[in-house]
Design a protein that fits this description.
The structure is a homodimer of 117-residue chains. Chain A is built from six helices and three strands. With 117 residues, chain A is mostly helical. Chain A has one domain: Winged helix-like DNA-binding domain superfamily/Winged helix DNA-binding domain (Arc Repressor Mutant, subunit A, Orthogonal Bundle). The relative contact order of chain A is 0.12. The interface between A and B is large, with 58 and 59 residues. Chain B binds a DNA duplex (20 and 20 nucleotides) through helix 3 and helix 4. Chains A, B: Keywords: DNA-binding, Transcription, Transcription regulation. Chains A, B: This is Transcriptional regulator. Chains A, B: InterPro entries: ArsR-like_HTH, HTH_HxlR, WH-like_DNA-bd_sf, WH_DNA-bd_sf.
Amino acid sequence: MGARNGPYTCGVDAAVDVIGGKWKVLLLWALAEQPRRFGELRRELPKISEKVLSQQLRELEADAIVHREVYAQIPPKVEYSLTDLGTSLNEALSPLGAWGRAHMAHLEATYPQRHPA
Amino acid sequence: MGARNGPYTCGVDAAVDVIGGKWKVLLLWALAEQPRRFGELRRELPKISEKVLSQQLRELEADAIVHREVYAQIPPKVEYSLTDLGTSLNEALSPLGAWGRAHMAHLEATYPQRHPA
DNA sequence: CGGTATCCTCGCTGATACTG
DNA sequence: CAGTATCAGCGAGGATACCG
């Protein structure tokens, strides 16, 4: 998804590219609530594999949406949280969330057309 | 993209699923400006294939984001425009667009991490 | 002009196994 | 606990050709 030729044509395009990963908005949502550890996130998104979770977190980290805090201790502890940029992204997302909630029923009905069997 | 298990976990998730197609936000953008014919859209998004353009338009149509008006004449003429729902989606998207524009430079720099060579 | 019909590729996603 | 490595599958997206 995202960029077509030279990145990017417009702002929405750029933003969607950042949050377009299959689990990213869910991660944003979880982290907005409170910082989480790797294992906590895995438990909250039960269907995600470790590899993909790690991958998406790193992409969000590269985009400075998520901060990764490593505690030098045994057993290891790593905590993920939203940066200021991440928080601002979440705020920019809120009208979209409201729109989605308002039309959720309709969108679930049209879901089959977007994801044919 | 989009729904994981049972659609949908939250509103943003649902919305992103609708606009997550590779070209959809660009189409929304173009149609918000003014209604367009098939060929006009193709010329504005030069890298899109006819098949995919048609596909994405039909998905947006199924979601009642886009209206498809067929004129019974020769040569054929079909005009695509935003519905009220589509317009409301575009409005809900505008903070995200502002966010994207504001951080575009940063996002282009981090682009390689999201789309490794 | 405005599409379908095929075929194909690429890379995202996932399952499993292993490590510091 | 928090990952990395490796391999495999699948499906959206794309190229090309053809049709009303």
